[in-house]
Design brief:
Blueprint: H1 2-20, E1 26-30, H2 32-40, H3 46-54, E2 58-63, H4 64-72, H5 78-85, E3 88-90, H6 100-108, E4 116-119, H7 123-129, E5 137-141, E6 144-147, H8 152-166, H9 170-191, H10 215-218, H11 248-285
Parallel strand pairs: 1-2, 1-4, 2-3, 4-5
Antiparallel strand pairs: 5-6
Helix pairs in contact: 2-5
């Protein structure tokens, strides 16, 4: 049961933190009835009891009107008055002291700018504050403290504010409409064509560096296109160099053939020379 209560409290604290910007340490505004409840049920120290309830550090406040009301009650509430004097005093700006509940209502106001948690045992005051959008309420029951869940009014207020954020305001809509009209007029001027078939040249609308784009490049891409990964060649540094497959015998054979050809030519030359010498000798003999 205790685990469910803590879980419910954390959920409520998260609601007010996310939707209304409450931040730690949380500020708790206490009235006289709540201080009296803490003392009567021995829930001291008060800051530790409230920090256990909210699962976060807290700072306790009260008002000068609450202190004046406890002081008027006399000896019956002297212990509560002495305990309340130890709390920080929130500014209420009341020259003439008013009742504690009306003072707290004025301190909270319509928007609770100081982001106070209100701790009170006054049921009527809690009902009034439930109609303020961003006021979390704390009350005591015997020797336990409870954080009230957001009221229906507070939940409806959050939903309506979220819907308003999704839609444009009148000022934003007019600014957007004016901007779209200006862009459409510029596009119409660029696309307009003269009677000669030549486009109108407006140097004021031309960029400084002009380029001629093809039709595909001018088209607007509605979807993101990813490049497909293709197989790449191996790293040239990790590949061995190709060895030459030439037969060394062939090269040597060519060299031999060349040598034979030179020998035969030399022999022919010798033979021709011999023939010539023989004919010369025969003639001489004859």
């Amino acid at each position: 049961m205790r685990f469910k209560k803590q879980k419910r409290h954390r959920k409520t604290v998260r609601f007010f933190s996310v939707c209304f910007g409450f931040r730690q340490p949380f500020k708790v505004l206490c009235d006289g009835t709540f201080v009296n409840h803490l003392l009567h049920n021995d829930l001291t120290p008060a800051d530790k009891a409230l920090s256990d309830c909210l699962s976060a550090p807290v700072k306790l406040f009260t008002t000068s009107c609450v202190l004046a009301e406890l002081k008027k009650l006399g000896a019956a509430q002297s212990a509560s008055y002495q305990a309340a004097r130890k709390l920080a005093v929130a500014r209420c700006d009341h020259e003439k002291k008013v009742s504690a509940d009306s003072c707290i209502e004025e301190v909270i106001g319509e928007n609770n700018l100081e982001h106070f948690f209100v701790a009170t045992q006054d049921a009527d005051l809690r009902k009034k504050l439930q109609k303020v959008p961003n006021v979390p309420l704390i009350f005591g029951l015997r020797n336990a403290l409870f954080l009230e869940q957001p009221s229906k009014f507070q939940r409806d207020f959050v939903k309506s504010s979220e819907e308003k954020r999704l839609h444009l305001t009148e000022k934003e809509f007019k600014a957007l409409e004016k901007r779209t009209k200006g862009v459409s007029e510029n596009v119409d001027e660029e696309d307009s064509v003269d009677e000669d078939g030549l486009g109108r040249h407006n140097p004021g609308l031309q960029p400084h560096n002009t380029r001629n784009y093809s039709g595909k490049e001018r088209d607007v891409k509605d979807r993101v296109r990813f490049k497909r990964k293709r197989a790449k060649g191996p790293n040239p540094l990790s590949v061995k160099k190709k060895k030459s497959h030439e037969n060394p015998n062939r090269a040597s054979g060519k060299e031999v053939k060349g040598d034979d050809g030179n020998a035969e030519s030399k022999r022919k030359r010798k033979r021709s020379r011999k023939g010539k010498t023989l004919e010369g000798t025969d003639g001489a003999v004859n």
